[in-house]
Structure formats: structure tokens, C-alpha cells
Amino acid sequence: MRIVNEEMSWIHLLMILLITPVMGGCYQSRSIPSWDQKLKAEDRFVLVLDDEAVLDRETGLVWERVPDTEHLVEWEVAVGGGCYNKKVGGRKGWRFPALYEVQTLVDPSQSAPSLPTGHPFILNSSVINGSIGFWTATEQRQNGSMAEAITFSSGNNFLLDKPVGAAFWCV
Fold first, then answer.
1. pTM of this prediction exceeds 0.90
2. Cβ atoms of residues 94 and 70 within 8 Å
3. Strands across the sheet with 146-150, in order?
4. What is the pLDDT of residues 125-167, one digit of tens each?
5. Residue 65 contacts residue 115 (beta carbons within 8 Å)
6. CA-derived radius of gyration, the chain
7. Are 115 and 128 in contact (CB under 8 A)?
8. Residue 91 φ then ψ, to 5°
9. Per residue in 29-70, pLDDT tens?
10. Rounded CA gap, 155 and 158, in Å?
11. How far is CA 130 from CA 13, 112, 165, in A?
């Protein structure tokens, strides 16, 4: 076993030496999110990008802190550029999340909103009471005119006709 450990050390050193110049001369350690851990909200969520976005340490995803619920749009508009053109915390490059990614925010033991207690997101009352649904990038396979949406009053997902207006939350 000692040989394997020494070989692994050499492999790690070689990777650091090869990657460091590509990263501008600094080695950055990034922990890989682990699905076997469940963090409390104060440890799980970290405000980033001038407090305009939230890093989820359980999944590694970065979410906008305040999703736009003022402009409800059809699915085609949302998926066609709603996130790509958005600027949050001085950064572009946002994307439309899949259903499984949005579901990682849901805490089934909570309701109105169905987010972990102590989360740092800023949500208006229409999100909390469930009158606004959020689009996801997940289309229904059997019926191309519908896509998955989610409500954060209950955390449930549902199918919604694509021409209907809904909010979207960028990641």
C-alpha cells in the first residue's frame, strides 16, 4: 500500500505543477461537493459577488440571491436568453437550471417558503405564498409544449404550458 500512496503523491504533485501555470500561477484548492453531507444553512450558503449571489456548498452551484419575480415570461423567452443576458454581481455567464438543480434548494420539512431555515435568499411574498412558479430548463418529453416548473410555497414541481408566464431563477 505504501507504493500506491507514494505514487499518488507524485501524481498530485505533477497535477499541481501542470495546473498552476494555467491558473495564473496560484494553486487553488476546491472541495468537491459531497451528497452525503447535509449542512446547516449558515454553513451551506455563502454570499458571494458583492452579496448578489449565493454559493451553495452542498452542490457547488451559485444562485442569484434575488430572483426576478417582476417579469414573468414564457418558457421560450426564459430559456432563450433570460439567464444568459443577465448580469448579477458584475458577472455574466448565468444559465437556466434543470429541475433536479432547483430541487436541491427545496427543504421538504419547510413550507412557505420550502427553503432551508436561515437561507440568505431574498424572496417576495408572491414567491412565498405560491402565486408565482419558476421555470426550469427541463422539458416534458411526451409533450413538447410543456416544461417543468416549481413553486417554493410547497417545493412541488408541476408541468406548465410553455406560453404561460412564470419567473426564472438563474444559476
1. no
2. no
3. 68-73, 166-168, 134-139, 146-150, 157-161
4. 877 777 789 999 999 988 889 999 999 989 999 999 999 999 9
5. no
6. 19
7. no
8. -125, 145
9. 455 556 667 888 889 999 999 999 999 999 999 999 999 888
10. 10
11. 51, 8, 14
